[in-house]
Amino acid sequence: MWCFSLQRRSLHSSLCLMKKTKSKTPAEQRWMQRQLKDPYVKASHQQHFRCRSAFKLLEIDDKFRILKPGYSVVDCGAAPGAWSQVAVQRVNSAGTAASACDASDPDLPRGTVIGIDLLNIPPLDGAHFLPSHDVTDLATHAKLLELLPHSRAHVVLSDMAPNASGFRDMDHEKLILMCLSLIDLAGKILQPGGSLLCKYWDGILAHELQDKLSAVFGSVRTLKPNASRKDSAERYFLAGMYRKQEKRL
User: Fold this and answer.
1) Whole-prediction pTM
2) Class (C level, CATH) for 50-242
3) Which reaction does it catalyse (predicted)?
4) What is d(CA 173, CA 200) in angstroms, rounded to the nearest whole number?
Protein backbone atom coordinates (compact mmCIF):
# COMPACT_ATOMS: atom_id res chain seq x y z
CA MET A 1 0.00 0.00 0.00
CA TRP A 2 2.84 2.41 0.86
CA CYS A 3 4.65 1.69 -2.43
CA PHE A 4 1.41 2.15 -4.36
CA SER A 5 0.86 5.48 -2.59
CA LEU A 6 4.33 6.67 -3.61
CA GLN A 7 3.76 5.63 -7.23
CA ARG A 8 0.41 7.40 -7.29
CA ARG A 9 1.97 10.57 -5.83
CA SER A 10 4.75 10.49 -8.44
CA LEU A 11 2.20 9.97 -11.25
CA HIS A 12 0.09 12.84 -9.92
CA SER A 13 3.14 15.15 -9.86
CA SER A 14 3.99 14.18 -13.44
CA LEU A 15 0.46 14.84 -14.65
CA CYS A 16 0.45 18.26 -12.97
CA LEU A 17 3.71 19.16 -14.68
CA MET A 18 2.33 18.02 -18.06
CA LYS A 19 -0.76 20.20 -17.66
CA LYS A 20 1.34 23.23 -16.76
CA THR A 21 3.71 22.68 -19.72
CA LYS A 22 1.12 23.77 -22.29
CA SER A 23 1.12 27.40 -21.10
CA LYS A 24 4.90 27.80 -20.86
CA THR A 25 7.54 29.27 -23.17
CA PRO A 26 9.67 26.83 -25.24
CA ALA A 27 12.58 27.17 -22.76
CA GLU A 28 10.28 26.53 -19.81
CA GLN A 29 8.75 23.55 -21.61
CA ARG A 30 12.20 22.05 -22.19
CA TRP A 31 13.01 22.47 -18.49
CA MET A 32 9.76 20.81 -17.43
CA GLN A 33 10.23 17.93 -19.86
CA ARG A 34 13.70 17.38 -18.43
CA GLN A 35 12.20 17.33 -14.92
CA LEU A 36 9.69 14.70 -15.99
CA LYS A 37 12.44 12.43 -17.31
CA ASP A 38 14.88 13.01 -14.43
CA PRO A 39 15.15 9.90 -12.19
CA TYR A 40 16.47 12.00 -9.30
CA VAL A 41 13.39 14.25 -9.43
CA LYS A 42 11.18 11.16 -9.22
CA ALA A 43 13.27 9.71 -6.41
CA SER A 44 13.11 12.97 -4.44
CA HIS A 45 9.29 12.77 -4.52
CA GLN A 46 9.34 9.12 -3.48
CA GLN A 47 11.78 9.65 -0.62
CA HIS A 48 10.21 12.95 0.49
CA PHE A 49 13.26 15.13 -0.17
CA ARG A 50 12.56 18.76 -0.93
CA CYS A 51 14.56 18.68 -4.18
CA ARG A 52 16.86 16.44 -6.22
CA SER A 53 20.03 18.06 -4.85
CA ALA A 54 19.70 15.82 -1.77
CA PHE A 55 21.14 12.94 -3.80
CA LYS A 56 24.36 14.86 -4.50
CA LEU A 57 25.08 15.15 -0.79
CA LEU A 58 23.94 11.57 -0.11
CA GLU A 59 26.36 10.27 -2.75
CA ILE A 60 29.26 12.34 -1.43
CA ASP A 61 28.61 11.39 2.19
CA ASP A 62 28.18 7.70 1.36
CA LYS A 63 31.70 7.77 -0.09
CA PHE A 64 33.55 10.11 2.28
CA ARG A 65 31.53 9.96 5.54
CA ILE A 66 31.73 13.63 6.42
CA LEU A 67 28.43 13.57 8.36
CA LYS A 68 28.36 11.46 11.51
CA PRO A 69 25.97 11.17 14.48
CA GLY A 70 26.67 13.95 16.96
CA TYR A 71 28.29 16.31 14.46
CA SER A 72 27.40 20.00 14.18
CA VAL A 73 26.68 21.16 10.63
CA VAL A 74 26.15 24.59 9.07
CA ASP A 75 24.26 24.49 5.76
CA CYS A 76 24.86 27.68 3.74
CA GLY A 77 22.30 28.58 1.09
CA ALA A 78 20.01 26.01 2.65
CA ALA A 79 16.70 26.77 0.89
CA PRO A 80 14.57 24.81 0.22
CA GLY A 81 16.20 22.52 2.77
CA ALA A 82 17.10 19.27 0.96
CA TRP A 83 20.72 19.24 2.14
CA SER A 84 19.56 20.01 5.66
CA GLN A 85 17.23 17.01 5.43
CA VAL A 86 20.19 14.77 4.64
CA ALA A 87 22.29 16.36 7.39
CA VAL A 88 19.51 15.89 9.97
CA GLN A 89 19.36 12.18 9.11
CA ARG A 90 23.11 11.63 9.11
CA VAL A 91 24.06 13.56 12.25
CA ASN A 92 20.92 12.45 14.13
CA SER A 93 19.88 15.97 15.09
CA ALA A 94 16.23 14.91 15.33
CA GLY A 95 17.06 11.81 17.39
CA THR A 96 15.61 9.46 14.78
CA ALA A 97 18.74 7.95 13.16
CA ALA A 98 18.51 4.22 12.57
CA SER A 99 20.97 1.61 13.76
CA ALA A 100 22.05 -1.47 11.81
CA CYS A 101 18.80 -3.21 12.78
CA ASP A 102 16.85 -0.44 11.01
CA ALA A 103 15.30 0.98 14.16
CA SER A 104 15.77 4.28 15.95
CA ASP A 105 18.83 4.05 18.19
CA PRO A 106 18.51 6.11 21.41
CA ASP A 107 22.20 5.63 22.15
CA LEU A 108 23.40 7.50 19.06
CA PRO A 109 24.65 11.03 19.86
CA ARG A 110 22.48 13.85 18.59
CA GLY A 111 24.03 16.44 16.33
CA THR A 112 23.11 19.99 15.35
CA VAL A 113 22.04 21.35 11.96
CA ILE A 114 21.82 25.09 11.28
CA GLY A 115 20.68 26.32 7.87
CA ILE A 116 21.24 29.84 6.51
CA ASP A 117 19.65 31.52 3.51
CA LEU A 118 18.47 34.90 2.27
CA LEU A 119 15.23 33.12 1.34
CA ASN A 120 12.57 31.63 3.57
CA ILE A 121 13.06 27.95 4.48
CA PRO A 122 10.10 25.79 5.53
CA PRO A 123 10.56 24.38 9.06
CA LEU A 124 12.27 21.02 9.45
CA ASP A 125 12.37 18.89 12.58
CA GLY A 126 15.96 18.65 13.77
CA ALA A 127 17.17 21.81 12.02
CA HIS A 128 17.42 25.43 13.15
CA PHE A 129 16.97 27.75 10.18
CA LEU A 130 18.11 31.35 9.85
CA PRO A 131 16.08 32.78 6.96
CA SER A 132 16.73 36.32 5.71
CA HIS A 133 20.35 35.95 6.83
CA ASP A 134 23.44 36.67 4.75
CA VAL A 135 26.21 34.11 5.27
CA THR A 136 28.82 36.86 4.83
CA ASP A 137 27.28 39.15 7.46
CA LEU A 138 29.13 39.49 10.77
CA ALA A 139 25.81 39.42 12.60
CA THR A 140 25.13 36.00 11.07
CA HIS A 141 28.55 34.79 12.20
CA ALA A 142 27.79 35.96 15.74
CA LYS A 143 24.45 34.11 15.66
CA LEU A 144 26.16 30.91 14.55
CA LEU A 145 28.70 31.13 17.38
CA GLU A 146 25.79 31.50 19.77
CA LEU A 147 23.82 28.53 18.39
CA LEU A 148 26.61 26.01 17.73
CA PRO A 149 27.60 23.72 20.62
CA HIS A 150 30.91 25.05 21.98
CA SER A 151 30.74 27.63 19.13
CA ARG A 152 32.23 25.11 16.72
CA ALA A 153 31.03 23.18 13.66
CA HIS A 154 32.39 19.89 12.35
CA VAL A 155 31.17 20.53 8.80
CA VAL A 156 30.27 23.53 6.66
CA LEU A 157 28.10 22.73 3.63
CA SER A 158 27.33 25.04 0.74
CA ASP A 159 25.12 24.36 -2.27
CA MET A 160 24.45 28.08 -2.68
CA ALA A 161 24.77 29.92 -5.97
CA PRO A 162 24.01 33.43 -7.24
CA ASN A 163 20.99 34.13 -9.42
CA ALA A 164 22.06 33.41 -12.99
CA SER A 165 22.66 36.56 -15.04
CA GLY A 166 23.13 34.75 -18.34
CA PHE A 167 26.80 35.78 -18.46
CA ARG A 168 28.76 32.64 -17.65
CA ASP A 169 32.05 34.29 -16.63
CA MET A 170 30.27 36.80 -14.38
CA ASP A 171 28.23 34.10 -12.67
CA HIS A 172 31.34 31.95 -12.25
CA GLU A 173 33.19 34.83 -10.57
CA LYS A 174 30.27 35.58 -8.24
CA LEU A 175 30.09 31.98 -7.07
CA ILE A 176 33.84 31.77 -6.53
CA LEU A 177 33.64 34.90 -4.35
CA MET A 178 30.82 33.31 -2.36
CA CYS A 179 32.97 30.21 -1.83
CA LEU A 180 35.93 32.31 -0.76
CA SER A 181 33.73 33.91 1.90
CA LEU A 182 33.19 30.43 3.33
CA ILE A 183 36.90 30.19 4.10
CA ASP A 184 36.52 33.31 6.25
CA LEU A 185 33.49 31.74 7.93
CA ALA A 186 35.45 28.54 8.56
CA GLY A 187 38.09 30.59 10.36
CA LYS A 188 35.45 31.55 12.91
CA ILE A 189 33.36 28.43 13.39
CA LEU A 190 35.06 25.34 11.95
CA GLN A 191 36.90 23.16 14.42
CA PRO A 192 40.38 21.77 13.63
CA GLY A 193 40.06 18.67 11.47
CA GLY A 194 36.67 19.81 10.15
CA SER A 195 35.36 19.68 6.59
CA LEU A 196 34.01 22.14 4.02
CA LEU A 197 31.95 21.06 1.02
CA CYS A 198 31.12 23.82 -1.48
CA LYS A 199 29.66 24.01 -4.95
CA TYR A 200 31.41 26.01 -7.66
CA TRP A 201 31.03 26.43 -11.41
CA ASP A 202 34.06 25.38 -13.40
CA GLY A 203 36.05 28.25 -14.89
CA ILE A 204 39.26 30.23 -14.85
CA LEU A 205 39.05 31.13 -11.15
CA ALA A 206 38.51 27.58 -9.88
CA HIS A 207 42.26 27.06 -9.35
CA GLU A 208 42.43 30.21 -7.22
CA LEU A 209 39.70 28.84 -4.96
CA GLN A 210 41.43 25.46 -4.81
CA ASP A 211 44.72 27.11 -3.82
CA LYS A 212 43.00 29.10 -1.06
CA LEU A 213 41.39 25.94 0.28
CA SER A 214 44.67 24.02 0.11
CA ALA A 215 46.32 26.69 2.26
CA VAL A 216 44.08 25.90 5.23
CA PHE A 217 42.89 22.32 4.62
CA GLY A 218 44.99 19.18 4.59
CA SER A 219 43.14 17.66 1.63
CA VAL A 220 41.06 19.12 -1.22
CA ARG A 221 39.16 16.96 -3.69
CA THR A 222 37.21 17.92 -6.81
CA LEU A 223 33.92 16.03 -7.13
CA LYS A 224 31.21 15.65 -9.75
CA PRO A 225 28.39 13.55 -8.23
CA ASN A 226 26.30 11.38 -10.54
CA ALA A 227 23.27 13.44 -9.54
CA SER A 228 24.90 16.54 -11.07
CA ARG A 229 23.69 16.86 -14.64
CA LYS A 230 26.42 15.97 -17.14
CA ASP A 231 25.91 19.15 -19.18
CA SER A 232 26.31 21.36 -16.09
CA ALA A 233 29.53 23.20 -15.15
CA GLU A 234 28.69 22.40 -11.53
CA ARG A 235 31.47 20.89 -9.44
CA TYR A 236 32.18 20.52 -5.72
CA PHE A 237 35.29 20.99 -3.65
CA LEU A 238 35.48 18.73 -0.61
CA ALA A 239 38.11 20.13 1.74
CA GLY A 240 39.02 18.13 4.83
CA MET A 241 41.39 18.20 7.80
CA TYR A 242 40.99 21.90 8.51
CA ARG A 243 44.05 23.57 10.00
CA LYS A 244 42.99 26.34 12.36
CA GLN A 245 44.93 29.48 11.54
CA GLU A 246 46.39 31.44 14.41
CA LYS A 247 45.56 35.12 14.40
CA ARG A 248 48.56 37.34 13.84
CA LEU A 249 48.97 40.57 15.75
Assistant:
1) 0.82
2) alpha beta
3) uridine(1369) in 16S rRNA + S-adenosyl-L-methionine = 2'-O-methyluridine(1369) in 16S rRNA + S-adenosyl-L-homocysteine + H(+)
4) 9
